[in-house]
Amino acid sequence: ASLLSQEHAGKLPNKTLLDVPKDRFHLVKILFFFYGLNSMLPMNFFTVANDYWMYKFRNTTYDNWDPYHRTPLQIYYHSVLSIVKAVPMMIVSLLAAKYIHKLHLRPRLLCTTFIACVVFVSLTIFVVIDTDDWQFMFLVIIAIIMTVLSVAGVIYRLSQTRLLARFPILYMKFDMYGSGCSSLFSILLQIVSLSIGNDPISRAFIFFVCGTAVVILTFILALASDHLQFYRYYVGNSLEDTQQPPKKFKELIRSGLCIWPSIVQFLILIGAWMCTASVTNLIVSEHYGNGNPWNAEECKVVRTSFISPGSYIQSTVFFLQRSNGYRKADPNFAST
């Protein structure tokens, strides 16, 4: 993103800092925070609401589900989810790296955010629909929804990176804060829903309604961003990007070799991500059934998740490292 920022800086009008519009009420910073929050939030909801999914795929002869006697759909749910997330993500990432610049930046962001809104509204509706008689078909529908969401997520994150490159480095911090807080937000929201709801359906309804509200708010902010002078000043006209020829394969290889440590980390993260949910879903608490509510199965995801500001701190450290490098390279960094 830093190289893109320098490239875009050369295309901005030759004006002094006094001519740059102000970010009134820090609305653009808030927008980027929600952009970052929305980048990971949809995926987290499919994992954190484990009790709801297990209830949906339970043995329907019982009112509740037993972690010691899981149905095949309960066992394979997270594995299926991992496959339909990872495979489309890898394929679309390769294609998008070559051709995505042919699409205008703003429509890409708006369309992918709108898709996330539709997905969350659909999931909220499915909460109140009785799917006991067509559980397998429901799993197929969820897999299709996850595939669409994975494809939209790749396009969204690539577009988000391109957008960040047009703004001062300070705005990357708020985007990373939002991304780092997405897991923490979903876990805290799950705790609230567990505290308020009396059964898996009511808890899931509270959980998904709140998630839907966040995604819709992000979409509204994205729509309103075009009316902000500060936002329009830095975004400029993306028509030049669409007129560039597709990237050649050799260029992609050369770029990949320059950032190979990040690619290795990404592949390790994807591998761990695919395995973690599938394995932890099959774990049963040692003291399950002893009457302690924290040993209940619906609290397992809360216990095993990182309920700490680790991602937030990691984003802060990363930003401080990057900003320190910018200060050494550019004495005027603080003013930008």
Write a concise keyword list for the protein shown above:
single chain, 336 residues, mainly alpha, Growth Hormone, Chain: A, disordered N terminus, membrane, transmembrane, MFS_trans_sf
Provide a descriptive summary of the structure in words.
The protein has 336 residues and is an all-alpha fold. It has one domain (24-326): Growth Hormone, Chain: A, CATH 1.20.1250.20. It is 71% helix and 0% strand. α5 packs antiparallel against α6 (135-164) and α5 runs antiparallel to α8 (200-224). The two termini are 16 Å apart. Residues 1-7, 306-312 and 321-336 have low confidence and may be disordered. It is found in: Membrane.
Describe the SSE topology.
Blueprint: H1 2-9, H2 27-48, H3 50-56, H4 72-99, H5 105-127, H6 135-164, H7 170-196, H8 200-224, H9 229-235, H10 239-242, H11 249-258, H12 260-280, H13 300-304, H14 310-329
Report helical residue fraction: over 70%
Architecture, CATH level 2? Up-down Bundle
Number of folding domains?
1
Distance between termini?
16 Å
The helix/strand class is mainly alpha
| Unreliable spans | 1-7, 306-312, 321-336
Overall geometry: globular
| Sheet with most strands | none
Q: Please tally the β strands and state the result.
A: 0
CATH homologous group name: MFS general substrate transporter like domains
| Secondary-structure element string | HHHHHHHHHHHHHH
Mean pLDDT comes to 77
In the CATH scheme, the class would be Mainly Alpha
Quote the beta fraction: under 5%
Q: How large is the count of helical segments? A: 14
Radius of gyration: 22 Å
Per the CATH scheme, the topology name is Growth Hormone, Chain: A
GO molecular function: nucleoside transmembrane transporter activity
InterPro entries: Eqnu_transpt (IPR002259), MFS_trans_sf (IPR036259)
Family: Belongs to the SLC29A/ENT transporter (TC 2.A.57) family.
Membrane topology: Multi-pass membrane protein
